[in-house]
Amino acid sequence: MTVEDLQELAEQEQQRQEKFTNRLMYCAAAGCVSCGSINVRDMLKKALAEKNLAATVEVVGTGCMGLCGEGPLVKVLPEGTLYQRVDETVARKIVEEHLVTKTPVKDNEIDTSHPFFAEQMKIVLENCGRIDAEKIEEYIAVEGYAALARVVTEMQPAEVVEEVRKSGLRGRGGAGYSTGLKWGIVRKVQSDTKYVVCNADEGDPGAFMDRSVLEGDPHRILEGMAIAGYAVGAQQGYIYVRAEYPLAIERLRLAIKQAERLGLLGNRIFDSQFNFRIDLRIGAGAFVCGEETALIRSIEGRRGRPRPRPPYPSEKGLWGMPTLLNNVETYANIAPIIRKGSTWFAAIGTPKSTGTKVFALAGKIRNTGLIEVPMGISLRKIVFDIGGGTPEGTEFKAAQTGGPSGGCIPAAHLDVPVDYESLSSVGSIMGSGGMIVMDSTSNMVDVAKYFMDFCKDESCGKCIPCRVGTVHIHGLLERIAQGKATTNDLPLLEELCMMVKETSLCGLGQSAPNPVLSTLRFFRNEYEELLQEPATFVPSGTDTPPTTH
Amino acid sequence: MPPTTTTPKPHPSGDNRFKLLDRAITKHQSRGDALIEVLHAAQGIFGYLENDLLVYIARALKLPLSRVYGVATFYHFFTLKPKGKHTFVLCTGTACYVKGANKIQHAAEECCKVKFGQTTPDDKISLVQARCVGSCGIAPVAVLDDKVAGKLTPEGAVERLMAWKNEKDEVTA
Amino acid sequence: MAIVTLTIDGEQLSAQDNESLLEIARQHKIEIPTLCHLDGLSDVGACRLCLLEIEGSNKLAPACTTRPMEGMVVHTNTEKLKKYRRMIVALLASEGNHQCSVCMVNNHCELQNLAYDTGLLYVRVPYLYPNKVTDASHESFIIDRDRCVLCTRCVRVCHEVEGAHVWDIAGRGIDCTIVADLNVPWGSAESCTSCGKCVLVCPTGALVKKGESVAEMEKHTDFLKYIVTARRKGEWISIENEEE
Amino acid sequence: MKPKVATIWLGGCSGCHMSFLDLDERLIDLADKIDLVYSPIADVKEFPRDVDVTLVEGAIASFEHEELARLIRRNSRFVVSFGDCAVTGNVTAMRNSLDLDDVLHRSYVELADTTPRVPRDYPTIAELMKQARPLHEYITVDAFIHGCPPTADQIWSAVTELLAGKKPELTHVFLRYG
Q: Which of A488-497, C158-167, D28-37, D156-165 has maximum average pLDDT?
């Protein structure tokens, strides 16, 4: 494969697509599939055959189109008309009315000028809803692998690192470390063997951003990783993906096979000296494996227990070799940065948090689904404009970001810009992209308890504060929720939280108390209302009945 | 009993499934660091990880027994006990939780008289918890024998569980 | 390797930069409490008792796995550290079933000593009173999991020094437990050489010799100094071998 | 007026009280200084009001103990956990991981010499709780005397400090479990 071959492939595919008068894109991501989008596909094909349109209209399964709560979704190209809640009847109507009589199916048409779409900006998800994830040609037709071609044939590794650094891209896994700096560190370490690892162990319950990218645009990850491999001097990559995502695993396997067949992975990529291979490693259900040292352990076939850093994986990672670890969304940003330049990317978002962020919007909100917004957008815009606000008759209470490591942002901070620093200033974190909206019916002590229950179950058990501390924090929350705790228990709860936060070995334990601390900060009254006064000495003569529990 | 033929011996247990497992092990060149991959393969073939199976894997990958046991018990995905005939996987991700998954949990536990993570004594139903199956848009969600049921209610869950419970046992010879 | 100067508790010291802060402090008679650390075994940084405050860092660092840097200013015994250490010991006490009065290593127990050193007057969190398996199937030794603090010294000494790898940890979180082979009774664990090293390095009464009675047994870990395969002083945390 | 002192025996073996008696000749000293208003070694039926210091031996093992603990808290200015069972649960709590019915059956049926019968059947005997737990998990405790049992010296040191109106500072010398 040469650069010219790639261009030729792209043109061929574009020509193939142009032969169709229409392309019907149905959402083949997990959410819509579980609502029956496969039946919709079959009906579309059947109806097309009946109307003799099978040769001129293509039916394409594509990645997540965002509005998961209203699925299954079908998009008609080239018009770009988007249909929601498509069942078999509607599918037939789309063919018979939209395609044949050219009258859109009004009842199911979505107004794409709605803020849900207008306020979004798609970089990571640009191909979701646009291409068939299972066809490498379709990815190539939308400039896929062009960035890799350019990097390998025209740029020095140091230039690639510099370009990524200048883009201001920060790790999308949650912590927000500068991606360019990380790449630079790994590049500079002297070693014959280095590894590039993609963290696709999306464990935050209530987040499915990475899944959507993996299922909807797997080649984007492969390309991002290969560019990273070239930049840091690695020849082998691993994608560590959750076993709970069978479709993503299947699509990745297929994508790797396709890329290898075309020589986009393997030896002498684009006739250069650069060799790069990618293997999959399947996780087995451990949230802690999102922590980088635990993830490395797990790839090595061990119990996924973290170890103290330093040494950092960039120095001693997989099998003791320098290892670059980034998450799915980070790699997904690489190809566009190379293609369109770091200046373009750096102009999006805020000066310190550049680019976009994908959020999985869920909970007590009208429009649930996957959204991609420029950094710095206000929380209010996300919740009320994009999300459409809370359901009828309830009021917004808080938005939870960062999952079990994050915090709740109350109504008073709705105008906070969504960027790394601002979110942490209000006691939450950017996190990997889960955003759960709570309304006036949500009980915050319960929410804190829910997350602590998760953390205690997911604690690996290596360090004492996390192993035992989370159990006690959960127990205290339970007692508080049941009304059995006294006012003495609240300071104990806070002390335990601070202790677990400051003394735990890894990020899981260090951030586990965050949901409790943040709800204590903004909704302390909800805790205090549940507390009793402890029994004390009552001198005779001042008789009040003894306090009973 | 002496072997009657000179063809390659089948696995001592005479179980052909071990051939499949051997293939998975060979694919990874019997490397110890492929333990998790091999356990995945083994569970896929046998349904669960029996002790004998773990011993077999430990020998094949030249790993200490306790390491294999430690790994198999660390990850939620692996199970050392056989699953029930039906599985009810309740999503307890945040979105489902906010939309009342805990009510379904209580109802299901009440109905089956076992806790999540357990199988009913008649081996009919396993209650399993999953941390987010990625269908947050249609929360609360459960996966009933590989079929996703969205916007589930406690009553709906109990109805389906009762159907499983009242299923007649298939006649076994 | 280079020589660096640093300050620990106000004392200016020079040290080799491949030694751990724990080694350096102990060379200078500065006491830092530890539990999972044992000279001669790899360090895992798990018990969090040896955490230190380092000026300019907002995170506490474990002395056993942190290397010195030029100009580092370290505090080993601040009020915050003392409080956290006490809480860690309290958590350990709450997680097991430690009845000192009926323990073979009563008065010779590292956990007891930690409770005294940290001034643990009582355990503020509720005791968990777990149900754990005591196994006396081995001909010479007993494993009493009620008293196990999961320091993994036994796991490490068995793997790193004896090379048998009888022990490992099963389960996760609060359910973690030490198992022999495939969680079999110790007496039927084929890999065990009955060398007894695990018993000697165990800081509590979780691993004991048969035939001793309450408060009779004393552990000694000095033998590790004479075993040449053990980790050399100053070696960086041995990632490849670290068995935990 | 002499300070009023009470001692009470809950879920324990009475070893702490035995150790208290080991104060020997110091007991005579003590008798001059305090008014012992309630104790298993004194014949008082009701736990009195306005006690200055109460030493509680033993864990909270039965519902009666729990009730008593609350009464003690209400009636005492200063409550002291006296001995390891009160402080940690200790030996009394060793049954906690076992099923209560199994424990009762083992003790009162399997090991019975005569009339094997589980005491639960007698309404006059306090019902055991599922677990025996330390005193401070039920009420606020002001001071702790450790040991199984605490030594006479430990008790003396704590008591003299308490009588001087101080919370006993248990230094390394006196802090000991077991």
A: A488-497
CATH number of A3-118: 3.40.30.10
C45 and A320 within 8 Å at the Cβ level: the answer is: no
Host domain of residue B150: 86-165
Other beta carbons less than 10 A from residue A515's beta carbon: 30
Contacts of A144 (CB under 8 A, 6+ apart): A10, A136, A219, A220, A223, A335
The kind and range of the H/E element at A450 are: helix A444-458
Enter the CATH code of domain C97-226.
Answer: 3.30.70.20
b vs e for A363-378, b when ≥16 Cβ sit within 10 Å of the residue's Cβ?
Answer: bbbbbbbbbbbbbbbb
How many CB atoms are closer than 10 A to CB B133? 25
Instruction: List chains touching D (3+ CB pairs under 8 A).
Output: A, C
* Alpha-carbon distances, residue B122 vs A375, A458, B144, B161 (angstroms): 54, 30, 18, 14
Q: Name residue B31's amino acid.
A: R
* Cβ-contact C157, C150 below 8 angstroms: no
Residue A398 — left, alpha, or beta (φ > 0 → left; ψ -120 to 50 → alpha)? Answer: beta
| Nearest of A415, A408, A378 to residue A520 by alpha carbon | A408
Asked if A464 reaches chain B (Cβ–Cβ under 8 Å), the answer is no
Cα dist from B60 to B8, B26, B45, whole Å: 18, 9, 16
Give the CATH number of domain A356-439.
3.10.20.600
A 17-76 residues with CB < 8 A to B? 30-31, 34-35, 67-71
Maximal CA-CA distance, chain A: 98
* pLDDT of amino acid D169: 66
CATH architecture of A444-528: Up-down Bundle (1.20)
Give the three-state DSSP class for A124. coil
> Rounded to a whole number, what is the distance in Å from the CA of B75 to chain C's nearest CA?
8
With contact defined as 3+ CB pairs under 8 Å, the chains touching A are: B, C, D
Q: Cβ–Cβ of D89/C127 closer than 8 Å?
A: yes
Q: Taking Cα atoms as reference points, which of A176, A165, A123 lies closest to residue A419? A: A176
Question: Quick check: D140 and A548 CB within 8 A?
Answer: no
Q: List all residues of chain A from 423 to 452 with a beta carbon under 8 Å from chain B.
A: 434, 436, 438, 442, 447, 450-451
Q: What is the pLDDT of residue C234?
A: 42
Task: Take residue A126 and report the two structure tokens written for it.
Answer: 């640009």
pLDDT category of residue D5 using cuts at 50, 70 and 90: very high
Q: Is the pTM of this model over 0.90?
A: yes
End-to-end CA distance of chain B: 29
Could you tell me if residue B44 is inside a domain?
yes
| Level-2 CATH architecture, domain D4-96+129-163 | 3-Layer(aba) Sandwich (3.40)
Rounded-to-integer distance, Cα C176 and Cα B70, Å: 9
ipTM score for this prediction: 0.92
Mean pLDDT over all residues of chain D? 90
Sign of dihedral through CA atoms B105, B107, B109, B112? negative
What digits encode the pLDDT tens for the residues C114-171? Answer: 999 999 999 999 999 999 999 999 999 999 999 999 999 999 999 988 899 999 999 9
Q: Does A245 touch chain B (CB under 8 A)?
A: yes
Per-10-residue mean pLDDT for chain A, 549 residues long?
94 95 91 86 95 93 87 91 93 93 91 89 93 95 96 97 97 90 97 97 85 93 98 97 89 97 96 96 92 95 93 93 96 97 97 95 89 96 94 92 93 96 92 91 93 95 97 97 95 97 96 96 96 90 57
